[in-house]
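Figure 6 in text form: structure in, sequence out.
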């Protein structure tokens, strides 16, 4: 695994001098200040920036040495100097400091050779040097210049150039101004602000990103700076020398696709190629890395493939989409030649109708036994109290008190038992299972072929055509705190203790699993509408977003509650919502994963988006609220408590659960009552419509799973 290096920049500006022969410059301090802001911007350069303004030569030499000596092998080191440059009699270049004396260059200036030696001896393999200075004449009075009228500083700065060193200078022309035996003034003829200003503008605006790949390399930056400088100052010609293997990436831009920094160079080069065949080769390599690379490479590969899936070139986009498709599970050896469904196959848009199971009105034995025991106990105790009272064994006041208590208990027990009996006769559901579950999730697979229920370490699944229990599912769902079906495949995400697993629901075999070094228990999981992302919240309050291809984390979010209780995505996948008790609802924008707002609904128990995406519905024991997804303002509050809520597939029906065990189905647009489903003896925990909207499934604290045939119940209620 490649260890990412730091990005370190040292910017030096000198515009005032103790030696009057050096003219005061106007721009260096301002330019270096602006350049520091651009390079330090996490969205552009993301450098660790230090600046030195008007410092003596010994300080400059010390800081330059520290910059290169303290660097690591993978660091990118950027050194920028803005000020005067001067050559001595031997043709050696010197960078002028604030205390530099023209006649004492060797001891009071910073020699270019010194900088070159520091670069060559540094562990850093990536070095960028920008010199925004003119290289003024330094010949003794009356002497003939040894180098002619034009001197190229590249001889000084690229000799013995180490691997990965790029030098860019403001100009190749050195203008000499001197008079025999007279005061010599060296002026600012190279206009440093033009050169540095072009760098700042190119990085800040992103215009230096010539190939629109989201990154600005050294070659692109030089081309941009050259064009800008020549346009504004024709007599000035920036120069550039690169002695490195591959390009050095200076900064990011908001143009085009940004390539992940950990991608191998050969893949980056192929993706930047103008030839589609090279890009296709890169996509195949990315597909391999997404499945077989280490953690960082898998994350980089998946991120890049997702970016390529929206590429304007349809062939490139389709190739990336195919690469992102989950791998097909391996078939059993004995049935390898037989066709089988796969977790990567999209489900049918029109699910098959679901038939309800054979109806059973039997109350759960635990619940019936409990209520009968309370009734008999109250009656027996009352009889005993009356018997003792007849023998005058108790004081009168105690007899009266006990009689009242036992009478009240008897009335309550009779009322409770009567309610149970009445509900039995009003119950029009089919009890799928009893005495097993207090599940917090119920869900149908998108094709309607499988129903799953469970939570709190208990659960199972059934095949809906026959309502036969799938024994193979128990190994996963009985250990699950939560589970969610993928919207576009036959896979299911299961929160099992300290990990989340993707399971093929045709074979109930594991496809992939998460890595969780913290060992915190995951309590809730949910898919994005596209099925490309999976969100999970653990017991420590951290929300993790995974890519479903490899189950590698995309980002981590901090929940306002500890931990989050409810997670959901908007139908278009652009907004992610998390919430928990006491009820802070957080809204996240999924492109940047930035928090865009917060809502509040105290003691929230469930929430969901309307299928058309126009409203967010939140439920609590105090009431149900509707929020506008345009302004995120409250639209209306319904004065009904809801422990669980759900829309049917087309959004025409909305169901909510009441504390007394009833489930109310209303017309979603108008909230006009449609059905009242009575059968549960205690508060429902979770409900779900089947994909064809013909069946509603529910679980409750009464430890039953009930299936409601909605068309049949509606017909019977209409007939009565």
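Output sequence:
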């Amino acid at each position: 695994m490649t260890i990412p290096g730091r990005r370190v920049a040292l910017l030096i500006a000198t515009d005032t001098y103790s030696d009057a022969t050096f003219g005061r410059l106007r721009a260096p301090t301002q330019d270096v200040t602006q350049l520091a802001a651009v390079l330090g911007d996490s969205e552009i350069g993301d450098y660790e920036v230090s600046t030195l303004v008007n410092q003596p030569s010994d300080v400059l030499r010390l800081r330059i040495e520290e910059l290169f000596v303290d660097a690591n092998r993978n660091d990118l080191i950027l050194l920028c100097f803005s000020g005067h440059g001067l050559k001595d009699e031997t043709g050696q270049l010197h960078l002028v400091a604030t205390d530099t004396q023209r006649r004492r260059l060797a001891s009071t200036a910073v020699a270019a050779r010194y900088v070159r030696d520091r670069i060559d001896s540094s562990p850093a393999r990536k070095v960028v040097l920008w010199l925004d200075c003119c290289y003024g004449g330094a010949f003794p009075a009356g002497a003939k210049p040894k180098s002619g009228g034009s001197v190229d500083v590249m001889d000084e700065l690229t000799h013995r150039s180490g691997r990965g060193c790029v030098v860019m200078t403001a100009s190749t022309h050195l203008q000499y101004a001197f008079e025999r035996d007279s005061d010599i003034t060296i002026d600012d003829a190279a206009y440093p602000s033009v050169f540095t200003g072009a760098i700042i503008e190119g990085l800040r605006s992103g215009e230096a990103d010539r190939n629109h790949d989201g990154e600005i390399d050294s070659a692109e930056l030089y081309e941009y700076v050259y064009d800008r400088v020549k346009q504004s100052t024709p007599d000035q010609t920036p120069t550039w020398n690169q002695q490195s293997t591959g390009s050095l990436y200076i900064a990011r831009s908001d143009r085009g696709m940004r390539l992940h920094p950990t991608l191998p160079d050969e893949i980056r080069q192929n993706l930047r190629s103008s030839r589609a065949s090279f890009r296709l080769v890169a996509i195949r390599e990315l597909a391999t890395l997404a499945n077989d690379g280490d953690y960082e490479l898998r994350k980089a590969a998946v991120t890049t493939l997702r970016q390529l899936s929206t590429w304007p070139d349809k062939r490139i986009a389709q190739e990336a989409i195919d690469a992102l498709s989950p791998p097909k599970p391996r078939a059993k050896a004995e049935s390898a030649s037989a066709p089988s469904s796969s977790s990567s196959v999209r489900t049918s848009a029109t699910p098959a109708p679901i038939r309800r199971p054979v109806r059973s009105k039997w109350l759960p034995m635990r619940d019936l036994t409990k209520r009968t025991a309370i009734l008999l106990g109250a009656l027996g105790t009352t009889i005993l109290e009356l018997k003792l009272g007849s023998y005058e064994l108790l004081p009168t006041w105690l007899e009266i008190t006990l009689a009242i208590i036992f009478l009240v208990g008897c009335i309550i027990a009779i009322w409770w038992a009567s309610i149970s009996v009445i509900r039995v006769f009003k119950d029009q559901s089919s009890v799928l299972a009893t005495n097993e579950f207090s599940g917090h999730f119920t869900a149908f697979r998108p094709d309607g072929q499988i129903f799953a229920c469970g939570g709190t370490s208990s659960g199972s699944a059934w095949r809906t055509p026959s309502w036969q229990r799938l024994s193979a599912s128990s190994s996963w769902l009985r250990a699950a705190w939560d589970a969610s079906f993928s919207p576009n495949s036959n896979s299911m995400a299961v929160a099992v203790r300290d990990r989340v697993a993707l399971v093929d629901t045709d074979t109930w075999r594991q496809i992939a699993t998460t890595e969780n070094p913290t060992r915190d228990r995951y309590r809730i999981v949910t898919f994005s509408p596209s099925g490309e992302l999976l969100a999970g919240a653990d017991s420590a309050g951290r929300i993790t977003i995974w890519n479903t291809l490899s189950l590698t984390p995309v980002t981590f979010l901090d929940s306002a509650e500890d931990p989050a209780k409810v997670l959901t995505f908007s139908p278009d996948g652009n907004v992610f919502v998390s919430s928990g008790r006491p009820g802070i609802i957080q809204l996240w924008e999924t492109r940047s994963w930035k928090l865009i707002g917060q809502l509040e609904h105290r003691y929230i128990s469930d929430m969901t988006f309307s299928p058309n995406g126009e409203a967010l519905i939140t439920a609590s024991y105090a009431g149900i609220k509707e929020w506008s997804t345009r302004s995120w303002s409250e639209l209306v509050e319904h004065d009904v408590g809801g422990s669980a809520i759900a829309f049917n597939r087309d959004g025409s029906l909305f169901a909510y659960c009441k504390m007394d065990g009833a489930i109310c189905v209303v017309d979603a647009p108008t909230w006009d009552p449609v059905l009242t489903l009575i059968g549960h003896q205690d508060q429902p925990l979770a409900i779900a419509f089947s994909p064809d909207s013909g069946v509603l499934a529910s679980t409750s604290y009464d430890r039953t799973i009930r299936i409601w045939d909605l068309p049949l119940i509606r017909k019977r209620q209409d007939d009565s």
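Caption detail: The CA atoms of residues 5 and 75 lie 4 Å apart.
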